[in-house]
Amino acid sequence: MPKNIAVIGAQFGDEGKGKIIDFLAEKADVVARFNGGNNAGHTIEVNNNQTILHLIPSGILHKGTINIIGNGVVVDPKVLMEEINGLTDKGVKVTPDNLVVSENAHIILEKHIKEDKEKNKHLGTTARGIGPAYTDKAARAGIRVVDYINQNNEFSKTLSSFVKNTTLLINNLINTDKKILFEGAQGTLLDIDHGTYPYVTSSNSIVGGICTGLGIGPKKIDEALGVAKAYTTRVGNGPLPTELKDETGKQIQDIGKEFGATTGRPRRCGWLDALMCKYSAMVNGLDAVVLTKLDVLSGLEKIKICIGYKYKSKIIKEFTTDVEILENCEPVYEELSGWKEKLDGMNDFNELPENAKKYIKRIEELIEVPVCIVSIGPGRDQTIILRKEFLF
Asked: Mind telling me the catalytic residues?
C-alpha cells in the first residue's frame, strides 16, 4: 500500500478534493498544501457541520495530523489568521504542533489584491491577489513569510510561531515513514502550464507542482489520485465545451449546490468530458480516480459523456488546450441510460443501480484509469470504496 498519496483535481477545481482529503486523512500523519492561495475553497462536512477552508490543509479536523502550508503557496496573513480563529471558535485546536507554514512561501499584500481587482476582471479570477503575488515572486520582487515575520507587521508576531523550514520538515517526515497526503488546490485544467491558458490559475496544480511547491523529489510521491465530478463544472470565464445552458444544466447546478466555496459564484455545469479527464490522467500520471457527486445525476433519464470535439468538420479525439478550438467546437457525445434511484445510504458498489455501475465502468474504459472511490454526498459516511489497494 502507498505511503505518500497525491490528491489532485482532474478538472477545473471544485471537484470535492476537500472531502476526499478529509476522508483519507483519518489514516494520514501529514497533509501538505503545495500550490495556490486563498482562491481555493475546500468544503468539509462532518456530522452535518460544514467547514470551508481556504489556506489551511483539509487534515486540520483530525487530531494528531500535521498540516503543512508549503513554499509553493501564496499566503494572505489576514486570511490565515481569520481561518485559525474561525477554527478555534468551532473548537478545533490549531497550534504550531498541527499547523506549519513554510518560511519560503510568499505573502499576498494589499497591493496585490487591489491590482487583481483592477486588471484581471476579464479572466474571472477570485480577486484575492493570487496572480499578482505570483507575478512579484517570479519577478524576484516578492516578500516571503520569513521576510514578513522579521518586520513589524500586523500579523507577524502571531504568525511567527507557525513558521518553519517545511522542506526539511516534510523530507524528515517522509524518511521516517510517515503517511503523507499531498493536497492539490484548483484543478489540472487550471494549471499555469497545462491548463486552458490564459483562463488558468497562477501556479502548477498538477502532480509536478508538488516537487517544487514542497521541496521533495518526484520519487517520494508513491501514488496520484485524481478527483473528478461525475459531470463537469467551471467557475469564471474560459472554455467549457460540454456546458449545459438548459434545464438539465440548471437541475445539476441546483441539486449539486454548484456555487463557489470562495466567492459564492454559480458554477457553470456540463456533462463529463472524457477527453479532459484522460488528459488529466496523462499529465498527472494518475493511478486511480475518485468520482464525486454521482448522486447529483440521479433522476436523469439520459446521461451523456463527451468522447470527441467536432471542429470545422473535423473530429478531434484528444484534448487540446487550444482555447480557439475549445470555445468553438461542438462536443461529440455518447449517451447512456440514467437511473431514478436515490443513492442515499448505499455503501457498497453492488448496491448501486445497474446503470450507475455501467456509467462508472464506461468512464474507466474511456479514461483508461480505474475508479477507486465513489462519493455520493458530502459526508464522510457517503463514500464507497471500490479499490482499497490505492488507499492507506
From this structure: 14, 42
